[in-house]
Structure formats: structure tokens, C-alpha cells
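Team,

Forwarding the record for the chain on the shared tracking sheet. I've put the sequence and predicted structure together so nobody has to dig through attachments.
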Amino acid sequence: DISYFVAVARADRTILARDAFGIRVDMPGNHTRVVALDELSPTIPISPGESGAEYRIYVGLSLTPEEMEYNRKNR
């Protein structure tokens, strides 16, 4: 299982909304890479007079503290 997040932010990086998601991915044998697809329909709260260019969408993996520590030690 892989946990990830999607966040909507203003251009100044102020987060307006953030949601967590999960997806199950099979990694048979000793594979180290996999491709997965998950479809979402985020809503961006564009106010009158604003443009979509004033917003950013961030997508990333949600790591446990142990995973973060492992990644920091094994850069």
C-alpha cells in the first residue's frame, strides 16, 4: 500500500486544501519499479478575478517517520 497526498496552494505556497489517499500496488518478485494510476478530480476554489495560474497543485508520497529516516541516511 502506498500513501500519497494532493494539496492545492496559492502561488505564495499557502496551502488551501490537502487530502491523503492510498493505492494498492503489486510489486512481484524483486522488481524495484512499478507504474500505478489513480484518477482524482480536485476542485480549485478560484475566486472572481483570479486565474488558475495563481494556484499550484502538489502531489507527494506520505512517508512514515521510519521511512523518512531511512531516506535521509541513504541519500
